[in-house]
Amino acid sequence: MSGTFAHREINPYEPPQAATWVQWPLLPPERWSEVQLRVDHVVPGTMERRIWISGTTVAEIRYYQSARDTVEVNGEARGRGSLWDASIVTPTIEFWLDGDGYRIPARVDAVAGLSWLTLFRLTKFRLTVAGQVIYEEGHR
Known about the structure:
disordered N terminus
């Protein structure tokens, strides 16, 4: 073998490398005004919301309740509620979206209430990204 670089063979059984976005810094608050997003589509459910956003970043955000409240971004869990929370739905879950070399802080506020048809349903839901409310229902 010639050259100074060692050749590394690809191992298909090797676990994938860590995602690079984990190492990206959070967008500082003084730059939050640069984030411009719009909601393209919302699919409501009794205890679930799917929200597609575009603009500064493009993402599918899914909030759902299973053993504990979960927020997924593009199919990957980014935030979870506490197992020890005594409420039916955790009121706040903080997570982040991928930006261009940085992470954008985001938050879901969800409240469940009683319903005649489904026993429980989301009565209030709010999605906040970089300090801006981009989607809201029931919080008036």
